[in-house]
Design a protein that fits this description.
single chain; about 240 residues; mainly beta; 11-stranded antiparallel β-sheet; 3-stranded antiparallel β-sheet; about 10% helix; globular; disordered N terminus; disordered C terminus
Length: about 240
């Protein structure tokens, strides 16, 4: 992907700040940086993949509108809304088209842009390909896929390289508690350009068929509660 802007200044501080506990530890949430593992975890559950190839390149996706089952909203690093577009200027993971920025100069999103996705029903899994210029993705917080119960971080190691040099990453999560919206947020501002392809989402019951069989460790608060109960019981008996 021969992106136009090649900003090489490096980050002095991480701009994306996560407050409180890391929600990735939730037993209901699993994160993925590999599409095959994500697909295997979904199993035979029905899913929808928006690959942008059934719509003509150059078609605008108006901010706040529904496109193939997803309500898309786009904002830049300053919180300003803009429109997306089905584009085909760069190589992508499948077909010719991808989700990009509706701009006369470039069809690529800039770091600092965020893409929000809303669903009409409860969704339990979402994953997508993230494509960027060679060497531009350096840190795991360059992009976060956020849902109500936690987030998945983009692994800065690409899973593949396209013919035009674009590096391919995958980011996804399964949340058995379910969610009705998700947001892809990127570090601000102007460190890299990117686009998205093959956004896949699925709904299923409270437990996907291929969930790990291992039992998660009790949360720290649960352990603390158990300890306190034991201490109180021992004190009463003494």
């Amino acid at each position: 992907m021969h992106m136009g802007i090649k900003v090489r200044m490096r980050r002095l501080l991480g701009v994306v700040v996560l407050s409180g506990f890391s929600l990735q530890a939730s037993a209901a949430l699993r994160t993925f940086n590999d599409q095959a593992a994500f697909q295997a975890a979904i199993g035979t559950n029905s899913s929808t993949t928006v690959d942008f190839d059934s719509t003509a390149s150059g078609t605008s996706i108006v901010n706040g509108s529904n496109f193939q089952g997803i309500d898309f909203s786009f904002t830049d690093g300053g919180g300003n809304p803009f429109d997306g577009m089905v584009a085909s200027d760069f190589d992508t993971t499948s077909g010719d088209n991808y989700l990009g920025l509706n701009d006369p100069n470039t069809s690529a999103f800039l770091s600092g842009d965020s893409i929000s996705m809303g669903f009409s029903q409860t969704v339990h899994a979402i994953g997508m390909y993230f494509i960027a210029s060679p060497g531009d993705i350096l840190f795991s917080n360059d992009a976060l896929l956020n849902v109500a119960n936690g987030n998945a971080e983009l692994d800065p190691t690409p899973t593949g390289t396209l013919a035009d040099g674009g590096e391919v990453f995958f980011i996804g999560l399964i949340d058995t508690d379910g969610f009705t919206s998700a947001e892809l947020a990127t570090v601000c501002c102007g460190f890299f350009e990117f686009n998205l392809d093959d956004i896949q989402f699925a709904s299923f019951g409270t437990q996907p068929p291929n969930a790990p069989s291992d039992v998660p460790e009790p949360a720290p608060l649960a352990l603390l509660a158990t300890t306190l109960v034991a201490l109180l019981t021992r004190r009463k008996r003494s």
